[in-house]
Structure prediction request, 226 residues.
Amino acid sequence: DAGITQSPRHKVTETGTPVTLRCHQTENHRYMYWYRQDPGHGLRLIHYSYGVKDTDKGEVSDGYSVSRSKTEDFLLTLESATSSQTSVYFCAISEPGQGNTIYFGEGSWLTVV
Amino acid sequence: RKEVEQDPGPFNVPEGATVAFNCTYSNSASQSFFWYRQDCRKEPKLLMSVYSSGNEDGRFTAQLNRASQYISLLIRDSKLSDSATYLCVVNDGYGGSQGNLIFGKGTKLSVKP
Prediction:
């Protein structure tokens, strides 16, 4: 158990509405990540953070923003949700020096209708 | 674009069988290698890291061939509980071993009684 909690776990929202997913960790890990997983694409990195207020883009960052104002919380925001953002979103953590082994939260299932 | 390629399967095997998965990666600078296991509608979980000399964990053996840029996973004496999707994961080579991870799309294994 990596001490990661994602919320909400399931959400249905309408196209054009803003959505924020929250990732909370209890073990003071420095690195946090947001991935999305879709059939035929595998896991793809959206954004990641290497410390408070330090974030960077991943492979599929368009349409997403993130914030990390505290070590324990990493927020993913869809400013205006689209149907193409229907997916399962996984938060993950890692620690430097462990070869970047990462551990995932349980996932957030988002449906945009 | 950096790639990790896996046979999607499914591999359907009887209990007790030995099954092997292969994975190829495109970035010769990759330095960290892993196998993750993902059950249906669950988060990926680390199965094992893959070391240059090869490594074993119970019924699971991982091998790395840097010259050919492929990774393998061997499962001996398959159990029903081994049924899952197995993800091959490598880092992107930036920042040494701390680079971001690239995930294969996974190989599905189904172990039958």
